[in-house]
Amino acid sequence: MRFGVLGTGHWAQTVHATALAGHPSASLAGVWGRDLAKAKALGAEFDVQGYDDVAALLDRVDAVTIAVPPDVQVPLVEQAAAAGKHVLLEKPIGLSLAEADRVVSAVRSAGVASVVFFTFRFQTGTSTWLTQAARTKLAGGAGSWLSALAGSPFDSAWRRRHGALWDIGPHALSLLVPALGAVTSVQAGGGTGDTVHLVLQHDSGVASTVTLSHTVTPMSTGIEFFVHGDAGRLVLLPDTEHPIDALRVAVEELTAAALTGGTHPCDVSFGRDVVAVLAAAERALGTGCRESV
């Protein structure tokens, strides 16, 4: 399957384009960017053409991977889906429920396959953890992701504006929701910087807690998730060192969904469910009350 990469930033270069260029069953056919010079430079690095016209690239591919800010991603998904191209998106799929609904509508109307790149969901360690969790009568769970965004390659305007909730919150939900069930309500409290603390009520009747931050000191960073139940405590330490391998798996799974006409567990509908929880958490931060999803 021929893929185009939409985006020219750090993640587009080091993960999306790199993963596709070395993929055993997919090929990188071109790169699009809002800045033609950057698109051509990234394309030259992988010996493919750079474009600033999305339609011109779409004419040469079967699918696209998208690595741009969420608000930029929405119209690109609409254009790609309308052209009949399968889509591999970044999370979150929008910065509001209205944006997420636009993405879902575009994909469903076009009948194309979709996968949202919740990185940890495409790793063997996570699959094993979720399988173990499914065999356990669970009573709850928790997650903590503390990072220092300033000065990192991910220190972008949209992340500074929307904070850890919208950037790494989707990853947390991509782990706790399949383990514990859909989230029905959220309570939230703010800490220092962009730190947020969430209490999630799940439709299985259990609750989980999540702490997210992009503003801790470098010595305080780390990621840990766990669920607990009748078989004890199941801990997951997500792998943040091998996103290229994870993206290659996501590409394989998108290709399979496209060929079979099936849906993927991390498709845009799941992505929309994640946005709904984030929006409820944002409301809870403002009201100080529990908010329904």
Automatic annotation (TrEMBL):
Keywords: Oxidoreductase. InterPro entries: Gfo/Idh/MocA-like_OxRdtase_N, Gfo/Idh/MocA_oxidrdct_glycsds, GFO_IDH_MocA-like_dom, NAD(P)-bd_dom_sf. Coiled coil: none annotated. SUPFAM superfamilies: Glyceraldehyde-3-phosphate dehydrogenase-like, C-terminal domain, NAD(P)-binding Rossmann-fold domains. It comes from the Bacteria. Residues 156-234 form the GFO/IDH/MocA-like oxidoreductase domain. Residues 1-115 form the Gfo/Idh/MocA-like oxidoreductase N-terminal domain. GO terms for molecular function: nucleotide binding; oxidoreductase activity. This is Gfo/Idh/MocA family oxidoreductase. It comes from Geodermatophilus sabuli.
